[in-house]
Structures are given as structure tokens and as C-alpha cells.
Amino acid sequence: MNTEKQTVRWRSTEIAIFTTLCLGLFAKPCAMRGQGAAVATPPPTVVDKITDDLYVIRGEGGNTSVFLTDEGIILVDTKFERDHDDLVRRVSALSNKPIRYAINTHPHSDHTGGNALLSPAVVVAHKNALTDMVKGRMPGLPQITFGDDIGINLGGKQVVGYHFGRCHTDGDTFVYFPALKVLATGDCITTGNGQGVPNPPTSSRINIDYNNGGSFVEALATIDQALKLDFDVVVPGHGPLVKKADVVRWRSGLERLRNRVSAVLHESKGKQDVSEVLVKEFEWDPAGNPLRNVLDGLIKELKP
Ligand SMILES: [Zn+2]
Q1: Ligand 1 ion: nearby residues, β-carbon < 5 Å
Q2: What is the pTM of this model?
Q3: Spacing, Cα 268 to ligand 1 middle (Å)
Q4: Average model confidence (pLDDT) for the chain?
Q5: Domains annotated on the chain, with CATH
Q6: C-alpha–C-alpha distance, residues 68 and 274, integer Å
Q7: Does residue 31 register a pLDDT over 60?
Q8: How remote is the CA of residue 34 from the centroid of ligand 1, in Å?
Q9: pLDDT for 30 beyond 50
Q10: For residue 187, how far is its CA from the centre of ligand 1 (angstroms)?
């Protein structure tokens, strides 16, 4: 799944390296408020062009989609707080219009950290994401929340946020650009580890935040709902852009994972055995966040 070579219309235009340290003031957010914790040497920032009016800013934190209209800009996710200045600089290079809205795909600080600094832009998120952020005493709470879906119409263009159920958290939003056939998925679907390293092409990795209501079992149904939308290009929560067919393939890998882990648990085997299966057969990083944070919850969900 070497997405850089695929035929969708994007191109990388900028690269810069940052050396801000995750220390002092940032230590608490890094450790507590986001699964994709900021690292000492952040990955390079990359700007992908999908169309003339839709760009994706990758690098540190979650992927940020930038949708340009004549009446202002709509962002999807706002990265870490420390990324704000760089994010605004890069958005300004694409358009001189103001940022009017930011839609959060879920509550984690690598996707919501810049919220408060974007005022007077209005922040939109699923109602459970707000609850999770309040519980986590996080800054930049969304001003507008929704249940099943919400539309934003600006400058004659439309964006729709959908909540299809639990996946990475209980407050996930898929952001759909119907005219462009593009879907931004948040961390329900990621193609990178959050630190600039792409996942192996054949891996079936998924990161579930059980503390914020995520569910591996329900993720499959949630992804199925998303796949009913008409889209070609996928902006994952982290990592390079992919296409719909990649998500279909990845989803079948998750189903295989579910069945395999269920079978292991049915044989009354334990955590160590499940861990080995995930690493050997599904390319989970033995030292990565998903294995560290997800294993107990996954076993609890799939245990007979
Ligand atoms: Zn996340």
C-alpha cells in the first residue's frame, strides 16, 4: 500500500523539520491527553493536495484537512497545541480567508490541541467527544455538538460530519466532502503510527481508546457504515492518504483478526498468546501504543 505512488490527485509540496521538545508545559498533554503523544523530534510536515480546494497537512499530530471556500476555511482536526503556529502558517499559504470552522474527529489532544487558539472559529464535534474532553479536563471544548450527523454549508460548498457508532472512541466523526468524494476518518482508520512512521502495508492495526468508550467489535460495523458513502480518497487520522479499496482490504484484515483472536481465546489461551498472534500474524508493533493500550480491552470484548 505505497500510497505515495497511487493515482489519486495529491502531491507533497512542503517539508520542514521541527525540533520543539515535548517537555515542561507540554509534558502533561503529551502523557495524558492524546494517544498519539508528541515526541522529542516531530516528523516532517507534509502538505498533500487532493483538489484545488482540499489539502491535508500531515506531520505531527493527526492529519488536518483544509477545505477552502470563498467565505472561509473549514479544518478537520487541529493537531497538538504546539503545532498551532505552524498549522496556521501553512493554512495561510493556501488561502487568505479566515478559518471559520474546525471539526474534531475525536477528543484526543493530537486532534484537538489547537482548538482554543483558533477562536473565533467555531469548533464542532460529536456530543460524546465533548463529554470525553470535559472528563479529561481538556482545553478548547467544542461549541457545537451533534448526534448522528451535521452539515456545514459555507461559500456554496458542503461538508457533512457523521457519527456511525463506536470505533477509536465513542465520539468519532467521519467527515465527508460529497462533491469531492473524499472521506476524513479520524483515528478509526490510520495508516501511520502517529509519529510519522507509516504502518506496514499488510498490517491490521487499529488503536482503540477503551478509556473513552472505543470498541474493536463495534468498529467493524462503524467502518461498514462509512463504506456505504460514495468516496474515492481517504484521509486517515494519521499517515498517508489511501483509497476506498485500501479501507475495504484493511477492514477484512480486522475481521480476520477478530476471528483469529476469538479462536485463540476459545482455546482458553491467555494474553501472551494473543499478543504473539497480533505481532506475528497482523504486524502489530510489539512496542507500539495499540498493543500496550488495546490488548486488555480487546481480550475483554472477544472473550467467550
Ligand atoms: Zn486518537
Answers
A1: 35, 108, 187
A2: 0.88
A3: 31
A4: 88
A5: 3-244 (3.60.15.10)
A6: 45
A7: no
A8: 6
A9: no
A10: 5
Q: Return the pLDDT at 197.
A: 82
> Helix H segments across the chain?
27-28, 84-94, 109-112, 127-135, 216-227, 244-266, 271-282, 289-302
Distance 98 CA to ligand 1 centre (A): 26
Q: Please tell me the distance between residue 252's alpha carbon and the centre of ligand 1 in angstroms.
A: 22
Find the radius of gyration of the CA atoms of the chain.
18
**Which pLDDT value is given to residue 39?**
67
Cα 101 to Cα 124: distance, rounded to the nearest angstrom: 7
The predicted pLDDT at position 4 comes to 31
Length of the chain, in residues: 304
Which pLDDT value is given to residue 198? 86
Residue 11 clears pLDDT 60, i.e. is over it: no
Cell of 180: 469531492
Closest CA to 142 of 160, 126, 123, 128: 123
Ligand 1 centre distance from Cα of residue 167 (Å): 10
Q: How far is the CA of 108 from the centre of ligand 1 (A)?
A: 5
- The lowest-confidence range among 26-40, 135-149, 164-178, 231-245 is 26-40
| pLDDT tens track for 140-171 | 999 999 999 999 999 999 999 999 999 999 99
- The alpha carbon of 70 and the centre of ligand 1 are apart by a number of angstroms equal to 31
Calculate how far, in angstroms, residue 195's C-alpha sits from the geometric centre of ligand 1. Answer: 12
Strand partners, 154: 157
Query: 266 CA distance to ligand 1 centroid (A)?
Result: 30
Q: What spacing in Å lies between the alpha carbon of 207 and ligand 1's midpoint? A: 8
190 Cα–ligand 1 center, Å: 9
Among residues 166, 260, 244, 265, the alpha carbon closest in space to that of 204 is found at 260
